[in-house]
Design a protein that fits this description.
The chain has 10 helices and 13 strands. The chain is α/β, with parallel strands linked by helices and 333 residues long. The chain is globular, with a radius of gyration of 19 Å. Bound molecules: nicotinamide-adenine-dinucleotide.
């Protein structure tokens, strides 16, 4: 059972009764939260994921049905669409992290580009009303803050993952708006964290809050990438799941709009470490509270979202502050 003390007042009462919704990547960190929320509001949920639900009990929802499949396999995916006939697709499946994409760019492009193309192609073929695409703030690279959706992007992305997610946005436009495909909407998430986040310091998929909490629990120093000053806008997974449902239902979108899903506030790595340690960042002691590790390749130094468009088009706003989100995660360590 997930921690529910962060649940916002139920202003978001959705009527999803009888709606057939496919969630790709529904055994992942974000997708599994989306699945829980859709089920809670009465949707008929079909999950497609390469992972087997029996191996991921903590991510599995008994009221959803699961199809074990790689979205890059067009013919098998066609059979799943034919069997499930979704009204909507929430497309979360992806090779989902930056640093591993330097080692495995081919796998990254297969899932993120070929996979997205298959989802859009089949959504058109089977009359899906709308595809909600999980885009990424990594699309911005190094850019002036705050990051706004209409700002001009650098010609090249900083890493293969960011490129692949940018191509997915283009496909949403080309295979949706330009060629009579399904309605589409692209949500650029900013550093998502919360329950079920990847958390093993050694794992290539873990993200900083997960790693730091794991290290805090083990009583070992947090591993900080130099110089500890890069800043990120952190978004709680509960808010990201709400944004997905609002994007699926909003009458104001459907034409491949790009919409930031972030909080409009950013924190340095040291500030995150300090929040978890429960002391001011000036009081952090090198060697005891943290150690420096090797720098990372090609990621933006700083992110900060403008979420004005999400407010206007989706009626969305972030509810969970980083302070509350971390306090809640610490309670469940
Ligand atoms: N977590 C973040 O901070 C963040 C930020 C921006 C965007 N995103 C995007 O959000 C989405 C979800 O990310 P997440 O953090 O939950 O990642 P995750 O790795 O936890 O979940 C992704 C899921 O997709 C599945 N998957 C991967 N490739 C697949 C394929 N070819 N066929 C079928 N299933 C496949 C995985 O098994 C996994 O269950 C991704 O599209 C990611 O790019 C995440």
């Amino acid at each position: 059972m997930l921690a529910d003390t962060l649940k916002k007042e139920e202003s978001d009462m959705y009527d999803l009764n009888g709606k057939r919704i496919m969630v790709t990547g529904g055994l992942g960190f974000i997708g599994s939260r989306v699945v829980d929320k859709l089920v809670e509001y009465g949707a008929i949920v079909k999950v497609v994921d390469v992972k087997h639900p029996n191996d991921y009990a903590a991510f599995h929802n008994d009221k959803a049905s699961y199809f074990v499949m790689d979205i890059a396999h067009l013919e098998q995916m066609r059979e799943i669409f034919a069997a499930t006939r979704p009204d909507f697709v929430i497309h979360c499946a992806a090779f989902a992290r930056m640093q591993p994409s330097f080692e495995q760019p081919d796998e990254c492009f297969l899932s993120n580009v070929v996979g997205a193309r298959n989802i859009l192609l089949l959504s058109k073929e089977f009359g899906v009303k709308r595809v909600v695409y999980s885009a990424s703030s990594s699309a911005y690279g190094e850019a002036e803050l705050p990051l706004t959706e209409d700002m001009k992007l650098a010609p090249r992305a900083l890493n293969p993952y960011a490129s692949s997610k940018r191509i997915g946005e283009m496909l949403c436009y080309d295979m949706g708006v330009l060629t009579g495909g399904p309605e589409t909407v692209c949500l650029r998430y900013f550093n998502v964290y919360g329950p079920r986040q990847p958390d093993t310091a050694e794992g290539p998929y873990a993200t900083v809050i997960g790693i730091f909490l794991d290290q805090y629990k083990a009583g070992v120093p947090m591993t900080v990438v130099p110089d500890g000053l890069s800043r990120r806008d952190y978004t709680h997974v509960y808010d990201v799941a709400s944004a997905n449902i609002e994007a699926m239902l909003s009458p104001k979108v459907g034409k491949a709009e790009i919409i930031n899903v972030g909080c409009g506030k950013n924190y340095s790595i040291f500030e995150v470490a300090a929040l978890i340690h429960g002391k001011p960042k000036e009081a952090l002691v090198e060697g005891k509270d943290f150690v420096f590790i090797a720098p990372r390749k090609d990621e933006a130094k700083e992110t900060l979202a403008s979420w004005e468009r999400a407010r206007k088009l989706l009626g969305w706003r972030p509810f969970v502050t980083l302070e509350d989100g971390i306090a809640n995660l610490k309670k469940h360590l």
